[in-house]
Amino acid sequence: MRDIRPFRKISLVLIILFILPAVLYISFETATLSESEEMIREVYRQQLDAVLFSVNQYIEDYIGSWRSRVNARLRTGTVEQADILAELPGVEAVFLWDENMLQIAELSVSGNAARFQQLIADSLRMMEGKVRQLRDYQKAGYQKIQPIIFNKTAAAEHEQLLLLLFTHTDYHDRTVVVGLMLPVRYFIETVIRVKLDELAGDRFKLGVFNRISKRSMLPVQSLTFNEANQTRAIWLLPDYVLGIQLAGDDIENLARERFYRDAIIISIVFILFLLGAWLILRNVQREVHLAQMKSDFVSNVSHELRTPLSLIRMYTETLEMGRIKSDEKRFSYYKIISQETERLSRLINNILNFSRIESGKKTYKMETIDINQVVENILDSYHPHIQKEGFKLEVELDHTLSSVQGDSEAISEALINLVDNALKYSSDNKVITIRTFKCAKGICLQISDRGIGIEEQHIRHIFDKFYRVPTGAIHNTKGSGLGLALVKHIVDAHGGSIDVNSQPGHGTSFNLIFPEAGVSA
What we know:
- The chain is an alpha+beta fold.
- Among the domains are: 5-57 and 251-292; 305-360, Helix Hairpins (Orthogonal Bundle), CATH 1.10.287.130; 363-514, CATH 3.30.565.10.
- The chain contains twelve helices and 15 strands.
- It has helices spanning 5-75, 81-87, 112-126, 128-139, 184-200, 251-320, 327-359, 371-388, 408-424, 456-459, 472-476, 483-493, and strands at 93-98, 103-108, 145-150, 160-170, 175-183, 204-210, 230-234, 237-246, 367-369, 392-396, 404-406, 431-439, 442-449, 497-503, 507-514.
- A hairpin with a 2-residue loop joins strand 12 (431-439) and strand 13.
- The protein is rod-shaped.
């Protein structure tokens, strides 16, 4: 079995160095993401609050300018309707009361004031406390405004606004309370809208809505009450609110988009970390596996070299000591030495060829050859060895086949490696079949045995260098792990392919397919 302890140690180090910091970073980013989004929302809330405050402040300043104009007129001691109303655009009536709320004068450009006189009187009695507060504020040096809305309707078409303000000027030795009456809709469309258009620009959408009906009070308004990110009461219009929305998108969508964007970026980073770690682990696993296979290769090759060398040495020493008197026995010993020498040569040739392949120095002498002749030449020299191992050899050659373009020595080497494998991995049913025939892809050289076979999950790895099936009888049989890798390289160099059919316990069949001479692969 392959030792996986080095791989486990390296995997643990990689997890500590790469995956763990990535997980901690992503966990931290995820944990702080909601805090960041709330911070963004708070920044926008403060910005929107500042805009809404600016609108309310503008309204108070605007009414304050009206107060100044009225004060200037009252200081002269005379109040002329044409003069005052000309300086107060939109105001339909001006009422003057003393500090006891007794009417001094009424200036009006319409009949609305007369219709609302009783309502105004009733409201003032009900708001006696508010009036006292206004007087106290005025004595303390503060300028306050008290709004009163009359004729409230759902459509708000005829609502009137009365603004009560104390002046700093005595009028005929009396402190004067001034009431300015104007239509609510006019006030919104002419006074408030100017500031809204100035502030909105391309960044915001601003609107004025009735607090109860949620209806927009501006003639052309794309913003609805439900779309507003925030709403604030209008200080001087208690039944109306200002609404605001970010142009193009709202805060929630911006926060949501940023969250999704950051989540996608974090996910990509995490996936890249995992992919990088996986690639590193895969490469490390491959290197560890390759190192283990190289170690197994050295062990197996050492055993493979030791066996023929031991036999050669033993038989040589026996012959040198002159212990063999029979010529027949002596010839037998020479034959064994020759066979073991050939076996040793094949092993060394495999190693040298593999080294040339790895260094890119392996070359092939391509020429037109008869595949049947290559097989017959190998069998002439190798058949005795096959018989000695107790195998029955079945040969079926199709002599009508076309020639192939190839290196006869390389093809011979591939055939010998496959026959050697058949000899090694066959147990009781010792039959080797070699066939040549025409197939759809070209000329096929088939080497079959009835040995132990290969499990399906290992077939795709058997041509890897140093690879040996890790379990079963195949693993217990010594080998270098280079033979099939060399066969695959030889066939690929000839533009051919290899088909493998195997069933455990029933044998294996290798089909080496070469293109016909003059026919491109």
